[in-house]
Amino acid sequence: MLKGIRAELNGAILEALSTMGHGDFLVVADANFPSDAIARQTRIGKLLTMDNIPAPRAIDAILSVFPLDTPVQPSVGRMEVMGKPDEIPGVQAEVQAIVNRVEGRPSPMYGVERMAFYEVAKKAYCVIATGELRFYGCFLLTKGVIPAEDVVR
């Protein structure tokens, strides 16, 4: 355990979040996502896990240390519901509320068609599998920057 670091963030996840650069993105996946198979094709090539943790709680923990790239563009993607791209399931609404709170303003997520999501995910820096049991609990988070004046020294 570390001071100021949420318990959900294990060493492997902290290392990945720290080594990612501006514009790199990660996948937060639900329990039904082919996480291991996709993770083998990502930059780090192995699966990271936040076992038994729902996606919203995992994303809340990640965003406690991870800057989003929101000033320029939407930086949180969501897997679209098949045949209903504008539908926002409960798990996605929960994540949207977390993103808005963390950013201090509305920061709409962008949708990615389900099959396209799998292809985009292969280009991610890493995949973090959660224990999210609800369908469509899969997200993309793009890393932003931390201004020099905000770096703790």
TrEMBL record:
Coiled-coil region list: none
Reactions catalysed according to its record: beta-D-ribopyranose = beta-D-ribofuranose; alpha-L-fucose = beta-L-fucose
Domain of life, source organism: Bacteria
MF terms (GO), sorted A to Z: D-ribose pyranase activity; fucose binding; L-fucose mutarotase activity
Keyword annotations: Isomerase
One Pfam family from the record: RbsD_FucU
GO terms of biological process kind: fucose metabolic process
PANTHER family from the UniProt entry: FUCOSE MUTAROTASE
Protein name: L-fucose mutarotase
